[in-house]
Amino acid sequence: MTSSAYDDQNIFAKILRGELPSEKVFEDENTLVIMDIMPRGDGHVLVLPKNGSRNILDIAEVDLFATLKTTQKMAQIVKKAFDADGITIHQFNESAGGQMVFHTHFHVIPRHAGVSLRPHSGEMENSDVLKANADKIRAVLG
Predict the structure, then answer these.
(1) Helices 61-81 & 127-141, crossing angle to 10 degrees?
(2) Which of 41, 74, 101, 113 has its CA 20 to 30 A from that of 87?
(3) d(CA 117, CA 60)
(4) Distance of CA 136 to the CA centre of its chain
């Protein structure tokens, strides 16, 4: 059980409904992938299930499997798009676990040997940089 009910007014729910803008890079029947607006590395994307859930503690199994499938696909795509040496995948649950937006999501971040993740500063990335990085990903997606 989670500590509270799903809030359909969270930022990701609003993005999924088209009420807020995002730099979308991939979408299928069950998931949406967007650029993280405060990336910890170039090519940092977020994988969201379209159905609402707070986090891994309450997500429906079918939505979890669909989201993990897209997370794996995006790990392969961003690794290639950014010529990365590896991939970091983060998924946070509840405030004590580091979760800030209470809609299930996975962070997929291309990594290069010897390069640290940028700190989570709260600073938003320039939209032109986000678009250029999204274009690199879309080019690999085809």
Answers:
(1) 100
(2) 101
(3) 31
(4) 16
Q: pLDDT (tens digit, 9 = 90+) per residue, 37-69? A: 999 999 999 999 999 999 999 999 999 999 999
Residue 104 tokens, joined: 């299930």
- Which DSSP category does 28 fall into? -
pLDDT in tens, 69-119: 999 999 999 999 999 999 999 999 999 999 999 999 999 999 999 999 999
Which residue's structure tokens are 């995002």? 22
Q: Does the pTM exceed 0.90?
A: yes
Q: Give the separation between CA 70 and CA 5, rounded to whole angstroms.
A: 25
In the chain, what are the domain boundaries? Answer: 11-116
The CATH class that applies to domain 11-116 reads alpha beta
Catalytic positions, written as ranges: 105
